[in-house]
Specification:
heterodimer; A: 160 residues; alpha/beta; Rossmann fold; six-stranded mixed beta sheet; 4 helices; 31% helix; 26% strand; B: 632 residues; Beta-Lactamase; Helix Hairpins; Heat Shock Protein 90; five-stranded antiparallel beta sheet; five-stranded mixed beta sheet; 51% helix
Chain lengths: 160, 632
Amino acid sequence: MSKVKKIVVLGSIGSGKSSLLKKLIGHPFLRDEAPTMGLRVYSLPVNDPAIDKLVFWELTSAGKLDSQPIDYLKGAHAAIYIFDLSRPSTYVDLMDESRMLAEMLPDIKPLFIANKADLVGTVQTTKLLDQFDKLQPIPYSAKNDESVEVLLNHILSTVK
Amino acid sequence: MKYDLDKIKLGLIKPLVQITIFKKDGTIIQSCNSMMELEEGKSIYDRFDFIACMEDYFQVMEIGEDLRLNPMEWHEEIQGLFVSRLAKIDAETIQWILIDKSIEQERVKAVLMGRDRAVLNEEYLQIEKTLLETKKELLEYRNEELARIQKFKERFFASISHEMRTPLNSITGLVKLLEWSDPKAIYDYLHALKATSQHLNHIINDVLDFSKIEEGKLILENISFNLKDIIDVVIKGFGMIVQEKSVELKVNYSEDLPTFVKGDPTRMSQILYNLIGNSMKFTNKGAVSLDVSKKENQLFFKLTDTGIGMSEETIARIIEPYSQAEGQQFHEFGGTGLGMTIASELVKIMGGELKISSVKGKGTNMSFAINYQPASKAEYSVDDHYDPSANVDVSKFSFLFAEDDAISNMIMKERSAKWNLNSTFVMTADDLEAELLEVQHDILISDLHLGDDYAPDLLKRLRKSDAVNKDIPFIFLSGDPLDLHPDLNQLDNWTYLVKPVNPRELSIKVREMLNLNKDNTLPAIDLTSLGNAAAHDKDFMKEIIDTILATLPEELGKLYDLILTDKLMDASKVLHKIKPSISYFGIPTLLEERATLHDKAKKGLEIKEEFEVFRTRINIALESLAAKKQDL
């Protein structure tokens, strides 16, 4: 079993995939990002006896899963799907997307990340998270270091 | 000549393509190394994370399967835009073809950015559309609300007019009865007349107060008063209703309640009148009880009744203006329906919030907390509020009243007699001018309009003249709100009251204008203490008095300088030092005032104004002491 794990990162345009990854691998938070061309790869060495590295495959922002070439997803050990709580267009089809992802990666339980929880307030966040209760989304704010730590732990426990 | 086109083609393609063959365990078998050096026999997994993370998949990948990653941004050993193909060519071997497409990077980026912008623009337009729709809905809601409030207002004023017409008709009828009746029945009619006028006055005051609150023009007073006295007066005001309804009205004060507080006694009374009035109105058996307590700098009021109770909707409605117009309860319960709204708004202005909870059929709880400042004494007592002469000798002041309305004039005369004022009354502008030019008065209380004349025009001329009354203070009375008369700002030393004039407000204004609030009168000097100290040796007593007369003004001068320069700790030491001298005056209030100043100075509190009053009083006492010395 390889100790280098592939994690595919999906989500609509501007849902915050690049920013999240840059935060995870220690880069400063950047607001203006050039669009990802097809696929962008980031590595994160981790201090874990079972895992040497997490290799994130950030997929193009084309948006919906049906537009993604399946070849990008093959061999993934984990999948992250990010949506933006402040932009309904990024989660309006979330349930359909989750079903499609389950078909594409039947052996994986994807992590759903509810990004920009800091922008919509506690009440709205709770309401939206309740709406997607089945997917067990994890609220996340790139401006909060604690939520990055929580997210990394989730990813590690998923790939093990 | 024949050219080797394949060689030329290969020369062009070679730097842009690298082919590497490796085993599925990562061992490099062969590489053309056109873009980067890969050593045969080494593991490709140690070189590239993006290949290493596919190791598990290569184990299960089907022979002939070809993964096409097109395009792919890569930042490991070389950077740029690539096409990467990973194909399983037999059970053990993977073929990796890497094609450099960096030359197309800018074009692809531009295309993708254009695509992203188009998607985001579409989303933005959708959001803008939703926002516009929401704004439209909000506007429609606002319009509906305004229409609803306007409708309530119309109904409210229609009902209020009816409410006012009823007592007015009664007053007219009663006056006619008085003209024709037997003198023995006059008392009963007068009693009814008074009650009806009070009812009408109550309605007018409610409307005027509410109007002031709505316009944000209600200004609170900040004077010290005896808290329990104020509340007791309110409770006594319900005496008749308590008797008539057999409902008990109780008040409980917590033991630590301060005696004197600073605030607005009138508005505090008004809140309590309105709340207790509401409770009494809806309680037919049992009790209404008021608990008053304090915590830190807040006073807590809790009113409990065993009345009919209210539903949540009623609670929300009764503090909404014009509630009775909406609820159609005018005829059932009477009143303007503004009492609870006014109480709630006054509590808000005082920094609190009126909370109401109720159980239908069981009763209602109302509570609020307001901030207060402690005070050491009352600037006004309950009785003072209705008498400008309280604690002050007003006989030396000459009051001039100018009022063209016969009834208002009569009321003023009655009020003046009740307050024992030395007053002169005039009814026309000509008489007022003559009086002001000929006889010296201390204060003028005048209607703004005297017949067709506008009193301020006359008074502006007076201010510019050399007449005896050129500096006289004025109190203007008018049915108009003050902001209708901006021209009054050209005058100085005046104040204004809106009719119907509340005697208490008039009393306060008179005291303010005549500067009667500072009580400089002193009890007589009592030399008992000095006599004891000097063993009744008169020569020694005179010697001590001489020392006091010589040193005390000097110490007061020092004190003044220390207070002005904020050296309050030093001031407290001087205040301590002068204690024996002051004790020899034999005037306990002076000793108390010194002690208060001493304590405040020690705590670093502002005492300048209080000290000035104290200094004046000490100077008066020194004059009396000097006179006393002559009698020894």
